[in-house]
Amino acid sequence: MSAPQVRTRSRKDLRRQRRRRSHACWDHLLVAPLWPMHNVNLGTLLRTCDAAGACLAVPKLPWVPDALARGNTLRTRSCVHWTGHNPVQWLADQRQRDDTTVLGVELAEDAVRLADLPPARSRTIAVLGHEQTGIPPEALDQLDQVVEIPMIGTGASLNVAVAGSLVLYRLAGLS
Question: Which residues belong to any copy of the tRNA/rRNA methyltransferase SpoU type domain (predicted)?
Fold first, then answer.
């Protein structure tokens, strides 16, 4: 019995199968690392946003625009929302919109397992906490739902870029 032939797709094939042009700001699915720690993670999340058809919501800290510019390896205009300097107030404002669900990625009681998270059907913001301390207690009150990423190993969590990417793919219905 011989192994099946694997045919990889060329860049030209991939372009033909994907959307004809990059999206403008869809504002339907956002990932929000509101307490960023490492600029490399923002660039990784920006790339994932493009792949999943999502937007990135970040605070306008002095180093963030440069981190996004360096992380944008696609060299196309990316969808970025600036949250201002008060992430908790920004979340409260977003939650006031009738069509918005604010989802926190956090280890918490009554959290939904990532595998059980359905794709987003309305405007959804996936909030990511600080890499060492998570989502601050004052921001937890602004969440409609919490999702956790189960882990088998000894670590307590994944880094923000990996966790955000996993959740984005699930919310976008791509996994």
Answer: 37-169
